[in-house]
Amino acid sequence: MGAQLRVYKRRIQAVTATKKITKAMEMIAASRIVKAQRKVAASMPYATELTRAVTAVATGSNTNHPLTTEAESPARAAVLLLTSDRGLAGGYSSNAIKAAERLRERLAAEGKEVDTYIVGRKGVAYYGFRERKVSDAWTGFTDSPEYSDAKKIAEPLIASIQKDTAEGGVDELHIVFTEFVSMMTQNAVDGRMLPLSLDKAEEASTEKGEILPLFEFEPSAEDVLDALLPRYVESRIYNALLQAAASEHAARRRAMKSATDNAGDLIKSLSRLANAARQAEITQEISEIVGGAGALADASAGSDK
After folding, report:
1. What's this model's pTM, rounded to 2 decimal places?
2. Which terminus of the chain has a lower count of CB atoms within 10 Å, N or C?
3. Do residues 174 and 80 touch, judged by C-beta distance below 8 A?
4. Model pLDDT for residues 14-58, shown as the tens digit of each residue
5. Rounded-to-integer distance, Cα 65 and Cα 62, Å
6. ω before 195 within 30° of 0 (cis)?
């Protein structure tokens, strides 16, 4: 019985240590969410105004720029998937990967080949385990991305869409990331970055009551687009990286809170079992003492006779 009690005590100690770790991780994730949210909010005005500027240039000129013009028969698309570098975040990375798989199937059904670009070790591991080809990958910054990271990611993507498909280029550029809605809600979404959908951009401006201004372009609208569109792609990727980071921290906080609560419940259960084992041990000892005392009393009574 004593051995069983020692087993329960060791398990309680192990679970208590795990609970301390998960509680610390929950607090760290909660503190990082606020910083990530501020970065997302700070990046939104720049991304919004840049989108308006690109839309104004594209709609206010007659130029057919390759980054704003739909291909007649798109045959190849690039998909950028944003996952995390670390685990212990619930279904954060798996949900993003599932969204990328659905997008891949949809593009394949349209007859398009897909080039995959991945951010985060979880996505790289997923594709590596299944021996799937990855065009390029980046790791090591998913929980705290910088604009330089977005610029580094955007370079090969922009170069790819500027090349002809016969030379290995793509006709479309898509991105899959986890959108931060609230502390409790994060949704894995996909969207097309290029070619820029001018109709949707105009509709969004109209809904907000905005009027796209008229501009004169120097030296030409095409040169302005050449300068603006790379910045547009970088800003979209950077905003997606920031939202993904905020979503990752929120998912990790929620997962660690659940683990901490489960550890507390397990400690209570083990404590009850340990108490029951100790009570049983005490009862057994008392029974042995009473039995021994009774035997001595019977022995003494027999000797007196």
Report:
1. 0.83
2. C
3. yes
4. 999 999 999 999 999 988 998 898 999 898 888 888 888 777 777
5. 9
6. yes
Read off the pLDDT of residues 227-283 as tens digits, 9 standing for 90 and up.
Answer: 888 888 999 999 999 999 999 999 999 999 999 999 999 999 998 988 888 887 778
Residue in this structure with the two tokens 């793509």, named with its chain if needed: 170
Angle at 195 between CA 192 and CA 196, to 5 degrees: 80
If you search the block for the tokens 């372009």, which residue do you land on?
217
Instruction: Count how many Cα atoms sit within 13 Å of the Cα of residue 277 in the half-sphere of its side chain.
Output: 15
